[in-house]
Amino acid sequence: MSRSAVTPEALTGRSEQHLCAAADAAALGAAVHRDVVEPLHALRREAAAAGFELRVLSGFRSFERQRSIWNRKADGQLAVLDSDAVPLDVAVLSETELTFAILRWSALPGASRHHWGTDLDVYDQSATPNGYEIQLVPEEVEAGGMFARLHEWLDARIARGAAHGFFRPYDRDRGGVAPERWHLSHAPTAAACERGLTPALLREVVERSDLRLKEAVLRHLDEIYERFVTNVNRPDT
Predict the structure, then answer these.
(1) Cβ neighbours of residue 58 closer than 8 Å, sequence gap 6 or more
(2) For residue 167, is it within any domain?
């Protein structure tokens, strides 16, 4: 699938036709878009030369996988965090409040950039203590955190345009998704996906899904699209 021919199914996590071969996924530790394979290999080689073992914790994520995460948060089976990554008492939240609280850290199914295979959550395996379960929380990646040095190195590469097209879509708080320093996106490949994911397509997918909080989502979908889907860092591509 070329960057100019992104299917609605691929955009919304309902197809895997855009993904790399199984052998590439095994080598990288995650399935990614086929156009991301070589840039990611190059970034990992350069990270290794700098003393890091850059690993992918999460690459492609299907609609069903994202729906499972969303529904379990809505049902109280998984923690819902506030902006400081502290668990909320979901029992006191209205459906609308719960919807927006989940969106702070978890994408709406159908709207996750992970559906595209262009976006990755990364960490430094060499800095991970034995037996530690990675949480993907700010404390791991901020100054003094176990993965801070890797991300400082990535910051420098991104700033000088030497990160093989990778950038941080959630580099700062824009009033939507919380900053995610661990989240990288391959700009040249993600750009076509960004153009293709329209409000109409997202509404169609949500309407047909078995999604908790569906009524609240549909009622506020225009605001969700503006704040949590399109409100991201966009480098020149």
Answers:
(1) 30, 114, 120, 121
(2) yes
Task: Express each pLDDT in 178-236 by its tens digit.
Answer: 999 999 999 999 999 999 999 999 999 999 999 999 999 999 999 999 999 999 998 86
pLDDT, position 5: 63
* Domain span holding position 59: 8-229
| CATH code: domain of residue 77 | 3.30.1380.10
What distance lies between CA 237 and its chain's CA centroid? 19
> In the structure encoding, which two tokens stand for residue 190, read together?
């993600």
Per-residue pLDDT, 158: 98
Q: Which residues touch 214 (CB under 8 Å, ≥6 apart)?
A: 206, 207
Distance CA 193, CA 199 (A): 13
- Cα separation, 228 vs 115, in Å, equals 15
Mean pLDDT of the chain: 96
In a domain, 236, yes or no: no
Number of neighbours of residue 121 by Cβ within 10 angstroms: 18
Number of helices (H) and strands (E) in the chain: give both, helices first: 11, 4
| Selection from 126, 127, 123 nearest residue 135 by Cα | 123
User: What average pLDDT score do residues 6-21 get?
Assistant: 96
Beta-bridge partners for 185: 119, 167
Token output for 129 = 């203590």
